[in-house]
Amino acid sequence: MRQVRIHGRGGQGVVTAAEMLARAGFLAGHEAQAIPSFGSERTGAPVVAYCRFADVPLRTREPVLAPDVVLVQDPTLLAPVQPFSGLAHDGLMIVNTTADAPTVRAEAGAAQTHATVITVPATTITMSHLGRPKPAAAMLAAYAAASDDITLDAVQRVFRQRFPGAVGEANAAAAADAYGYVRAELAGTAGGGGLTAAGTREA
Length: 203
Fold this sequence. Notes:
By secondary structure, the protein is an alpha/beta fold. The protein contains 6 helices and 6 strands, in the order βαββββαβαααα. Residues 10-179 form the Pyruvate/ketoisovalerate oxidoreductase catalytic domain.
């Protein structure tokens, strides 16, 4: 089983991101489920949602307390919500930020974690295509670039299906840009920082 937790703020499409991730996981051949968590739903309030993948039927529905992957759509949540909490020792965290991985670790109070940290300027990418700070497609594409759980094609397909027309195409374009950014980052050629030759897995 692969468990994913998504952190963000109200208005950023966190629940939609979990739903789209589950759909992309299904297209990749997994059993998948998305679980929203509603508390304060006002714009700007912290929001969390969950997703699970498995190759067998999923029967559990509880919140994800021990994720393998964490997506953080708003970097201002790094300190207050402690997104590294419960993350697997060899887990993956993807953060929407222009900062580098060591800065993310320091801000989250997780300098000693062995989890892999990838940074991607998802909001900047999304604004250039959508004109709105809705980074879900870019974040899921970053996840696709960093793992074998889902594919870029699946991410683009689910957003085109959910938002037919110009909005879907804009999300697909943002996804392609974020995917390319993270693939370059993994190869050590991006300027944004994250996984680099010197800092792929800092202790």
